[in-house]
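Incident log, structure service

09:12 report received: a user says their structure output differs between two submissions of the same chain.
09:20 pulled the input from the user's history:
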Amino acid sequence: MNAAEIRSYIREVPDFPRPGVSFKDITPLIEDGSAFHAAVDLLARATDDLDYERILSAEARGFVFGTALAYRSRKGLILARKPNKLPRETVAATYQLEYGEDALHIHADSVTPGTRVLVVDDLLATGGTARAMCQLVENAGGKVAGVAVLIELAFLNGRKTLEPYHVVSILSYDAGE
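09:34 re-ran on a clean worker, output below:
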């Protein structure tokens, strides 16, 4: 299955979660075993040449692709969680929301100095979440090997927010798509 076929499983939900937003619903994709498998395979092929030891994904939809890619690539998985969700000492990074800010945390011992980490998420919009995940890696002394996403909303310029990191996406949407 190629990227165009995988794209056919992404459902567009207009005006969700608010007017003017066209939400990209991945649930039809992950509900179809063959399509989900193909999407993870494409992510794996797109990141095969990257040198990394672990994958970092953020809750909740990022966990879906991060876990599957970690399993397929036989790499460890680090979970980035919202505040007060992890039981031990954490490292945090904040990022901006439309009306305020939020934070992501990882366990302080999840990344040791020099560990090469691939950041994986379902979608790249403005880049705020992925940038915070990159900061988590660096705050813990690790190196960002790259950022991999299934869907990129290219018109929101998230890739620019993530410079100088290497970014790969499987599906790219322009404004109005």
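09:41 both user submissions now match this output. Likely a transient worker issue. Closing.
09:42 reviewer note: The helical segments are 3-7, 27-31, 33-47, 61-73, 128-139, 158-161. The radius of gyration is 16 Å.
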